[in-house]
Amino acid sequence: MDNLIVVTGGTGTLGRLLVPRLRAAGRGVRVLTRKARPPENGVTYVTGDLVKDEGVDAAVQGASVVVHCASDYSGDAEATRNLVRAASALPWAPHLVFVSIVGVERLPITGLGRLAFKYLGEKYAAERVVTESGLPWTVLRATQFHDLMLTAAEAMARLPVLPYPTGFAFQPVEANDVAARLAELALGDPAGLAPDIGGPEVFTMADLLRSYLRAAGKRRALLPIRMPGRSARAFRAGVNLTSNGSGGRTWEDFLAERVGAK
Ligand SMILES: NC(=O)c1ccc[n+]([C@@H]2O[C@H](COP(=O)([O-])OP(=O)(O)OC[C@H]3O[C@@H](n4cnc5c(N)ncnc54)[C@H](OP(=O)(O)O)[C@@H]3O)[C@@H](O)[C@H]2O)c1
């Protein structure tokens, strides 16, 4: 059991970058995924579903560390409860490593925010399942990944006019920089709540959209919308930002590679 690290979400944006780092450190790696896959590059895949609680016990067998990167739009708290139950049934206590989101513990989720920020509320509930699990744990909170901001900008740019929430700012971070930090934490001793990780720069939503449109060679009008409610007010106060920005890859460099080269 000493060598094996089980990664949930090892096929996702972050997990795909994390897994090779754990392998390079000489660790055995098993990934829990909903879709069957053959072993590849020394990584084995176990089929299961965390929300449906299928295959989870088998997935964690023999793990000394469980890194939980799996996530879906809904069900993250239930998925995490199922993972914790399976990990707690092992004859030893594995190190549980969880990736969360900067600001979830400070975001009031009320009124309209229950709909708009449901995912963040669910994330904080999942985080508490980890910290109250009784297992040795580490939680790393990250700001939004470059990939997510790009997906959002691309989706919005399908419209002729881009409505955006005024006063919101983001500090996008390179997923690979998060994967590097998460690998260090997974390979180390349980650290509790680790220092946040965020990108090197803060942008208003309008600036993020403008830089995307410029890189993609698109012209669109922006439509500022002031979102009501306490959750939106917390965003305008920068609840999702961290003073602990990384020296990692910038949004402009990311855009140049992912959009400019198209
Ligand atoms: N994206 C961001 O900006 C951001 C920022 C901060 C923190 N985070 C956190 O970082 C983590 C990884 O995010 P990501 O962007 O890499 O996610 P992602 O690309 O959407 O990948 C999601 C992963 O979760 C797995 N998954 C989903 N539902 C599952 C289920 N019911 N059972 C088992 N596996 C399931 C998927 O595996 P299969 O499809 O193979 O089953 C996939 O590997 C998440 O916890 C997220 O909240 C993300």
Can you tell me about this structure?
Helices cover 39% and strands 19% of the residues. Helix 6 packs across helix 8 (205-216). The strands form three sheets. Strands 3-2-1-4-5-6-9 form a seven-stranded parallel β-sheet, with helices on both faces. The chain has a two-stranded parallel ribbon with strand order 7-11. Strands 8-10 form a two-stranded antiparallel ribbon. The protein contains ten helices and eleven strands. The model has no long low-confidence stretch (mean pLDDT 95). The protein has one domain: Rossmann fold, CATH 3.40.50. The protein is globular and about 55 Å long. NADP nicotinamide-adenine-dinucleotide phosphate (NAP) is lined by residues 8-9, 11-15, 32-35, 49-51, 69-72, 79, 99, 101, 123, 142, 144-145, 148. NADP nicotinamide-adenine-dinucleotide phosphate is lined by residues 8-9, 11-15, 32-35, 49-51, 69-72, 79, 99, 101, 123, 142, 144-145, 148.
The CATH H-level homologous superfamily:
NAD(P)-binding Rossmann-like Domain
| CATH fold topology | Rossmann fold
Number of domains: 1
Largest sheet: 7 strands, parallel
CATH class: Alpha Beta
The DSSP helix count reads 10
- Derived from helix and strand composition plus strand pairing, the structural class reads alpha/beta
The unique ligands bound to this protein are: NADP nicotinamide-adenine-dinucleotide phosphate
Proportion in helices: 25-40%
Strand order of the largest sheet: 3-2-1-4-5-6-9
Give, in order, the helices and strands: EHEEHEHEHHEHEEHEEHEHH
| Overall average pLDDT | 95
The name of the CATH architecture is 3-Layer(aba) Sandwich
Tell me how many strands there are.
Answer: 11
Low-confidence stretches: none
Terminal Cα span:
45 Å
General form: globular
Beta-strand fraction estimate = 15-25%
Gyration radius (Cα, Å) is 19 Å
